């Protein structure tokens, strides 16, 4: 049995454009192309796509995925390896959930992130975060901006990083409160929070409208960021993205 590119896109959630890109770079070649020019995929290609998506979830870039697929021989052994990695990622996300919950509890005791003295162990703020993963993604998508960000980060002290993390978590809590109150993303109060978020990013690099929208979408698409937002409040990742899109359209376009 064969499935069209539209069928595969519907089943997998991967866009037809992405599937065509995978074909162009040799990562996922269709079983055959029909006389109508449409791509068709068999069971082997669907299994390969599953592996690609698993590795994407684990943070691998396309070049690394291609290398893994070229080297693998035993498909079942490969799936066992993916399962082990997914279990490790699950454990890391569980640790991240505990980190955010702990920080929220401390912030609720003291609403001022600049004067908060209740955190006995600041290292707990960062348990579960995989910063290297995001640095690699940023380097692929926005290399110049990633370099600027790295240069800025190198100037920060540990105390600076702690203050920034506390402020970021406090901002997430405020956005969650606005969302739960039913405040539209275009409301001045929401947009003021997004503007503060944008200005904070501009300390490292200056995103244009398209890049700021892409960053907001990344908060939804990336499992780690989504977990961080949605453990503050369910749906917060989408709310943040939509608010950033509204800001980009109104202010940056």
From TrEMBL:
<dbReference type="InterPro" id="IPR000551">
    <property type="entry name" value="MerR-type_HTH_dom"/>
</dbReference>
<dbReference type="InterPro" id="IPR009061">
    <property type="entry name" value="DNA-bd_dom_put_sf"/>
</dbReference>
<dbReference type="InterPro" id="IPR012925">
    <property type="entry name" value="TipAS_dom"/>
</dbReference>
<protein>
    <submittedName>
        <fullName>MerR family transcriptional regulator</fullName>
    </submittedName>
</protein>
<keyword id="KW-0010">Activator</keyword>
<dbReference type="Pfam" id="PF13411">
    <property type="entry name" value="MerR_1"/>
</dbReference>
<dbReference type="Pfam" id="PF07739">
    <property type="entry name" value="TipAS"/>
</dbReference>
<dbReference type="InterPro" id="IPR047057">
    <property type="entry name" value="MerR_fam"/>
</dbReference>
<dbReference type="InterPro" id="IPR036244">
    <property type="entry name" value="TipA-like_antibiotic-bd"/>
</dbReference>
<keyword id="KW-0804">Transcription</keyword>
<keyword id="KW-0805">Transcription regulation</keyword>
<keyword id="KW-0238">DNA-binding</keyword>
<feature type="domain" description="HTH merR-type">
    <location>
        <begin position="2"/>
        <end position="71"/>
    </location>
</feature>
């Amino acid at each position: 049995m064969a499935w069209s590119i539209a069928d595969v896109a519907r089943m997998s959630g991967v866009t037809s454009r992405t599937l065509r890109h995978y074909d162009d770079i040799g990562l996922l070649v269709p079983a055959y192309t029909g006389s109508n020019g449409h791509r068709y995929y068999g069971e082997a290609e669907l299994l390969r796509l599953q592996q690609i998506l698993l590795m994407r979830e684990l943070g691998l870039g396309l070049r690394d995925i291609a290398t893994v697929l070229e080297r693998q021989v035993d498909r079942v052994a490969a799936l066992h390896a993916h399962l082990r990695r997914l279990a490790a990622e699950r454990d890391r996300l569980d640790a991240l959930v505990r980190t955010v919950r702990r920080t929220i509890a401390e912030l609720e005791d003291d609403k001022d992130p600049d004067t908060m003295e209740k955190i006995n162990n600041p290292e707990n703020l960062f348990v579960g975060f995989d910063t290297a993963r995001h640095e690699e993604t940023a380097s692929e998508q926005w290399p110049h901006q990633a370099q600027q960000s790295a240069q800025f980060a190198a100037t920060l002290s540990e105390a600076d990083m702690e203050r920034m993390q506390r402020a970021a978590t406090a901002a997430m809590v405020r956005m969650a409160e606005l969302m739960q109150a039913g405040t539209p993303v275009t409301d001045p109060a929401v947009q003021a929070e997004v503007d503060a978020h944008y200005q904070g990013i501009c300390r490292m690099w200056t995103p244009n409208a398209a890049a700021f929208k892409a960053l907001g979408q990344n908060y939804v698409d990336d499992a780690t960021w989504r977990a961080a937002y949605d453990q503050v409040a369910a749906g917060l990742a989408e709310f943040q993205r939509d608010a950033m899109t509204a800001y980009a359209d109104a202010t940056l376009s």
